[in-house]
């Protein structure tokens, strides 16, 4: 089986999903996924391919935002996708835009927000509201994704804490861009879903935000309207919501939401 793994937007060395399909000589199941569920997905996908006999081509995009590499923007450009996996908020926008087959959306898992710092640097205290505020106020620059969690942080939490105009925030197009900036020492701390921090190279997990200021983000899957492989897409979603998938989901820092898990 051939696994075409995650791509962070168009890069010269990578082929679009349609070219991958032609190179494989058969139509793969095209999946587009955002960062939050990617860790669990990466672990689970080989087993799905092995047991299903299907080949999966995976592209990536942000759940929400205004950039050209959001999942919505890519679908609007006609990039092929049979299934999408993204934040429930982003999926809600796709449903409203009639991009999703009615009744196929399923919640997979949820994840809290946490903070990450460059590997080896002191881990700040973010366990209380005041400790989190002081960590951000003392940081030179704070990275956040431009997608769902970053939108909430910049438009809701930071103003509510009274620090929106007192901290320097650097929005990143993707969660992986935020962790990359931390690992490179370009920013001091990142705030984003825990499942995006834990697998990031060169980044240490500092902890989850306090319950009073927590934003627990659901991630969901659905079949894209116009897909020619609805049954195969349905098999993937059923696999991701199955009880055997729960362990990998928990190991990635998320909590399974499917009743069968």
Structural class: alpha/beta
Distance between the termini: 27 Å
Shape: globular
Adjacency order of strands in the biggest sheet: 1-3-2-4-11-5-12
Number of strands: 12
Mean pLDDT equals: 91
Low-confidence stretches: 1-22
Taken together, the total number of domains comes to 2
H/E topology pattern: EHEHEHEHEEHEHEHEHEEHHE
- What is the rounded Rg? 18 Å
Beta-strand residue fraction: 15-25%
Q: What is the percent of helical residues?
A: 25-40%
CATH topology of the largest domain: D-Maltodextrin-Binding Protein, domain 2
The count of helical stretches stands at 10
* Name of the CATH superfamily of the largest domain: Periplasmic binding protein-like II
CATH class of the largest domain: Alpha Beta
What's the main sheet like? 7 strands, mixed
Assigned CATH architecture of the largest domain = 3-Layer(aba) Sandwich
């Amino acid at each position: 089986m051939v696994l075409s793994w995650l791509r962070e937007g168009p890069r010269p060395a990578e082929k679009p999903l349609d070219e991958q399909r032609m190179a494989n000589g058969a139509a793969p199941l095209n999946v587009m996924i955002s960062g939050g569920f990617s860790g669990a997905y990466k672990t689970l996908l080989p087993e799905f391919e092995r047991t299903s006999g299907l080949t999966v081509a995976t592209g990536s995009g942000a759940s929400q935002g205004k950039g050209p590499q959001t999942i919505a923007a890519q679908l609007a450009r006609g990039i092929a996708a049979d299934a999408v996996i993204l934040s429930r908020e982003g999926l809600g926008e796709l449903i409203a835009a009639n991009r999703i087959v009615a009744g196929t959306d399923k919640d997979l898992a949820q994840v809290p927000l946490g903070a990450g710092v460059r590997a080896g640097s002191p881990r700040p205290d973010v366990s209380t509201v005041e400790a989190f505020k002081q960590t951000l106020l003392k940081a030179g620059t704070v990275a956040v994704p431009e997608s769902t969690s970053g939108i909430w942080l910049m438009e809701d939490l930071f103003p509510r804490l009274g620090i929106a105009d007192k901290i320097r925030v650097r929005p990143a197009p993707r969660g992986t861009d935020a962790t990359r900036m931390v690992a490179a020492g370009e920013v001091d701390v990142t705030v984003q879903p825990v499942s995006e921090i834990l697998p990031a190279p060169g980044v240490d997990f500092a902890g989850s935000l306090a319950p009073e200021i927590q934003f627990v983000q659901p991630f969901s899957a659905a079949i894209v309207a116009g897909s020619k492989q609805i049954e195969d897409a349905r098999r993937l979603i059923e696999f991701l919501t199955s009880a055997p998938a729960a362990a990998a989901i928990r190991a990635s820092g998320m909590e399974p939401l499917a009743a069968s898990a």
